[in-house]
Specification:
The complex is a heterodimer of chains A (about 90) and B (about 250). Chain A has about 90 residues and is of the alpha+beta class. Chain A has 3 helices and 5 strands, in the order ββββααβα. Chain B has about 250 residues and is of the alpha/beta class. Helix content of chain B is about 40%, strand content about 30%. Chain B is built from 10 helices and 11 strands. Classes of the chains: A alpha+beta (about 90), B alpha/beta (about 250). Chains A and B meet through strand 3 and strand 4 of A and strand 9 of B.
Chain lengths: ~90, ~250
């Protein structure tokens, strides 16, 4: 399951979600031409979404991402936690 | 504060990225803040840290044309490195604004000043571009680690869009011509704006980047060169790094 969008500001973000039981996320990949400092915290964000029920609302998805960012004192540039949550929800609803 | 300016030289893609990282490590310890100018030989594509190589690059055409491919440690988009001048600015984070966008604006200001010196009026387009009459002439990418800010970017001197698009992947082959046409309308270069030699453009960049700074011309130290060679081999040349995020 994937969803890709050029978000406001011009950065392209693609969310891919894998699920074997069609109810929770087993693996998540976030790619694109955005910025994130430090860069390797992308894996923490992706990992934070593993186990997430696919029918979670955007607020719950965003909360996980925000917590993960906070943990690493990480900053997203060109995309927000809210954008990623919205794209995640779109990817799994397709 | 005395800056070190490392004059233009060409390296392959792997060494270029490794040198930027080796300088960053050295600046974290004791090396002076550094401005470096460089080119790419052979022609190369660098992709952003978060990009999927297979989605961005036409691997077959790159192999056929001898174009190197490397993943940067900065985010941002795929860049075709030919007909441009690349720079890196590497300094302690405290030298620039803590605010990331503001620090892009500060460093991009050096490019805007440089272009003004050769009669090209440009402006900063957040997050990381510089445009001339609405067309992109420079793309930039920044990272911060261990208290050190690295920003590198390119200033287009002249660009062969047909060749560029043969190396970059397009989502739909049927619209490749249209994409090239679109790119012609969105991208410009120094040569398109003014009749200026490469040397004049480069001299303007040195002036723009060093304006208001104490600086001396310098070289990489032996330890930076050794570390760069090690990083090129152990990271930037490896498929583990370049194929990451598949």
């Amino acid at each position: 399951m994937q969803f890709e969008e050029k978000i406001a500001g011009g950065k392209l973000v693609c969310i891919e979600v894998w699920s074997t039981d069609s109810s929770t996320a087993d693996r998540v990949r976030i790619s694109g031409d955005f910025f994130l400092h430090p860069e390797d915290s992308i894996e923490d964000i992706e990992d934070s979404l593993i186990g997430l029920p696919l029918d979670s609302n955007e607020g719950a998805i965003e909360a996980r991402i925000a917590k993960s960012l906070q943990k690493r004192d990480a900053s997203l540039i060109g995309v927000s936690a809210k954008d990623i949550a919205r794209l995640f929800a779109k990817a799994v609803s397709k | 504060m005395m800056w070190r300016v490392i004059e233009y030289s060409k390296n392959d893609a792997f060494m270029n990225m490794a040198i930027d990282e080796a300088i960053s490590e050295a600046v974290a310890v004791s090396a002076p803040p550094t401005i470096r100018f460089y080119g790419w030989d052979p022609t190369a594509i660098s992709i952003g840290y978060f990009q999927c190589l297979g989605k961005e690059v036409d691997l077959k055409n790159c192999a056929e044309f001898g174009i190197d491919i490397v993943r940067r440690r900065t985010g941002g988009g795929a860049v075709y490195h030919d007909g441009e001048i690349t720079y890196s600015v590497i300094a302690k984070e405290s030298v620039f604004s803590k605010d990331i966008l503001e620090s892009y604006r500060q460093i991009c200001g050096c490019i805007i000043d440089s272009l003004a010196l050769i009669g090209i009026k440009s402006e900063f387009k957040p997050i990381n571009d510089i445009i001339v009459n609405g067309k992109k002439i420079s793309g930039n990418a920044q990272t911060r680690r261990n208290g050190v800010l690295l920003q590198h970017g390119t200033i287009l001197y002249s660009v062969d869009l047909d060749r560029m698009f043969s190396a970059l992947k397009v989502s739909d082959e049927k619209i490749r011509d249209k994409l090239i046409q679109n790119a012609r309308e969105r991208v410009t270069s120094i040569s398109q704006q003014r009749t200026v030699s490469w040397n004049e453009a480069y001299e303007a960049l040195i002036s723009g980047f060093t304006k208001g700074k104490d600086f001396c011309l310098g070289d990489l130290s032996d330890s930076e060169i050794m570390r760069a060679k090690d990083l090129a081999k152990s990271r930037y040349m490896t498929s583990e790094w370049n194929m990451m995020r598949l």
